[in-house]
Design brief:
Strand content: 15-25%
Number of strands: 4
Bound molecules: zinc ion
Low-confidence stretches: none
Largest sheet: 4 strands, parallel
Radius of gyration: 15 Å
Number of helices: 4
Distance between the termini: 45 Å
Helix content: 25-40%
Mean pLDDT: 89
Length: about 120
């Protein structure tokens, strides 16, 4: 069976020393493609570099719902430009509205999203 892991965060510090071993592990168990999620735009170049390093790694670009207060017009432009220019971008994410974990700033979040 071929597997696709649709949500990984290989750029997190805990994985940096073992990335080649981790890659071998996913190959050993039959994972043939992975989609790396982005939490914030400053990660984009790092994750893009990882997608070049590992052929089976694709990525999403976005801003995590809990970081919505960082949203700017530049964020939207950066996400759009990267999504249209890099063939390894296969999704927009992380993104959305997460009211289950962020009880405050609900109105601000909606205002930012809809403006
Ligand atoms: Zn995630």
């Amino acid at each position: 069976m071929q597997l696709i892991d649709t949500h990984v965060h290989l750029n997190f510090a805990d994985f940096q020393l073992d990335l080649d071993a981790i890659a071998q592990s996913w190959r050993d168990v039959g994972v043939v493609q992975l989609v790396h999620s982005c939490v914030t735009p400053p990660e984009f170049t790092q994750i893009q570099a990882l997608s070049r390093r590992f052929a089976e790694l694709y990525f999403a670009v976005g801003l995590h719902p809990l970081d919505v207060d960082q949203w700017t017009d530049a964020t939207a432009a950066e996400i759009s430009a990267l999504a249209q220019s890099d063939p390894k971008v296969v999704a927009i994410g992380e993104t959305g509205l997460d009211f289950s974990r962020l009880k405050i700033k609900r109105n601000n979040k909606l205002r930012l999203r809809l403006s």
